Amino acid sequence: MKLATVSLAALTAVGLASADCSYVAGNYYCSNTNAIVYSNVGYSGSYKDVTSMDESSCICNQASTSFSGSLAPLNEELSVHFRGPIKLSQFGVYYPNAGTSLKKRDVADCAPVSHRHKRDVVVEWVEVTSTVFVDSNGNPVTSAAADMTSSYTKVNTIISSAQNTSPAQQNVDTAATSSSISTAVGSSSQSSTSSSAVGQSSTSSSAAAQSSSSSSTSSSAWTRRSYFTPGSTTNCTFMNHQGGVKGSGVWSSCFGNSISYAAADGITGASSAEALGDVTILSGNEFMIFSGEECSGNDCGYYRDGIPAYHGFGGGDKIFVFEFTMPSDTSGSASNQDMPAIWLLNAKIPRTLQYGDSSCSCWSTGCGEFDLFEILSVGSDKLISHIHDGQGNDGTSTGGGGTQDYFTRPTSGTLKAAVIFNSSDQTAHIVEVSDDFAESLSADTVDSWLAKAGSAAALS
């Protein structure tokens, strides 16, 4: 078991897929992990925010919205999304009490390494960029081309809010060929994924230094503000895409079904909020969780008329917790059959149009998605993580980064995990845990979750 780390502010490819990685159904998979740490998350930029949805013309209007700061734009309100097959046993959101904080991690700088570097260990630092496939003449081809003979990795230098680097310095190739095939970035809301390149380091000591864990500077607890167990919710609102079908939300020929309250089965619509029951959601079906606080006035920005509009989960310091099972489901022919996922979206996206015309949400201009656990091909047992936003690519959705290390899909039994956002050092941790999700979390408990990063590095 090892730690997977992804640096977003200086995204540098340090190797091709090694012999320790496998290429399956269009995606690379490397090592099983129990912790992933994203560092240098957040930048200054802008995205196109929806300002109106005209039912008569079927046109959505947009205006530029600027953001900056640690974890931006993922420090904005987020909604939590689930795709079957999945059974959710627990979900919660914690916020720090007054006086609780996480200190900055001691993270060593990651020096770029040539893709020709000696590859004598398994991936330690996973610096992900685009994979470029070339033929025998060095000309780029698609990954499916019959005459593909090799690949190399394109290096992208991501510009953080603290830097002032010219556009000419933002893209540097590690091979002679200057053209490339961009990573096919896909949203869980867009139902596609990328085959990203993977990097590796020749020393494990640097990875251990880079994975020094965060720890809280106060003994104050983190308070659980939202919580769900089957049949019971506190400050959670379950929704799906059944608007206009059964008592909530709307439907139109322009924009289709809006979001709606979800019934206890998670699949059908409802006229009012209901708690998800003790159910397994089958392939192709999705539901989402917002907070229990309704939008009022313009405090959520623009959203589609007639929908049940609720706030997401905002802030730079927060912890999401999950317990879930992702059983196999090959019984139907639904889209995304047997490809479960859990992901976070900027909450503005589902409140306008999660699926459909790209001008009707801010997704395509980089307002933010964080794939926490996603199966990329039918029946896979490897859960991949990826951040999609505009970091490093001038405000488009093709920035961000991810890792080809993976969590093991829990097809029987459950997986418990915490997702920790730490604004003080611009990190986001995804960590398997075993503790109870009590009404409050002590600083020691959170410290122990963050310390898993260091433990994983020591074992690698």
TrEMBL record:
Keywords: Cell wall biogenesis/degradation, Glycosidase, Hydrolase, Signal. GO terms for biological process: cell wall organization. It comes from Tetrapisispora phaffii (strain ATCC 24235 / CBS 4417 / NBRC 1672 / NRRL Y-8282 / UCD 70-5). The gene is TPHA0L01490. It comes from the Eukaryota. Belongs to the PGA52 family. Residues 34-96 form the Cell wall protein YJL171C/Tos1 N-terminal domain. Its EC number is 3.2.1.39. Residues 221-449 form the Cell wall protein YJL171C/Tos1 C-terminal domain. GO terms for molecular function: glucan endo-1,3-beta-D-glucosidase activity. This is glucan endo-1,3-beta-D-glucosidase.
